[in-house]
Design a protein that fits this description.
Structural class: mainly alpha
CATH architecture: Orthogonal Bundle
Number of helices: 8
Radius of gyration: 15 Å
Helix content: 55-70%
Strand content: under 5%
Length: about 150
């Protein structure tokens, strides 16, 4: 029996909690911080992708996370010209400005490390390849590899 009355809601809540649990392992036991870090990183990543690439990533996300991902999105003028690691992390810091202090680099690393565990490995690799080298290297550092993305456990 469904707790909410709709299985789709129960499934997305369960899946979203798995994502948040991954992030809390890296960022500490504050679920609100994990949620905000996920949103901040996904928003900057989304805005750096073309509209088509952003839509492909969205299709991989659980329904609840997809809503977070698309929140306040304006596809006109995308992709934004974020080409360095510091620009990428600075944008994430701006998204985390109104919560308790969180190191934006740590938040970035946690989400980039977790993302390949939850989305298709091939899709993840395509995303990585589309990013500028400096940002791509940040992601690959988190994966602990110089080659392909980690296997998916979607």
């Amino acid at each position: 029996m469904s707790a909410s009355g709709l299985e789709v809601f129960d499934k997305t809540l369960q899946t979203t909690n798995l994502w948040l649990n991954d992030l809390m392992e890296e960022l500490g036991p504050d679920r609100q911080v994990a949620w905000r870090a996920l949103g901040a990183v996904l928003h900057v990543l989304r805005d750096r992708l073309t509209v088509e690439q952003a839509a492909h990533l969205a299709a991989q996300l659980p329904l609840l996370v997809r809503g977070l991902y698309y929140d306040q999105w304006r596809p006109a003028g995308k992709p934004e010209k974020i080409s360095t690691r510091s620009e990428f992390v600075d944008r994430i810091a701006a998204g985390l400005a109104d919560i308790r202090p969180v190191n934006p680099e740590s938040a970035t690393r946690a989400v980039l490390k977790s993302l390949p565990r939850h989305i298709d490995a091939g899709e993840c690799e395509k995303l990585i390849q589309e990013l500028p080298k400096d940002i791509r290297n940040l992601w690959r550092t988190e994966l602990g590899q110089a080659g392909a993305a980690a296997p998916s456990r979607a």
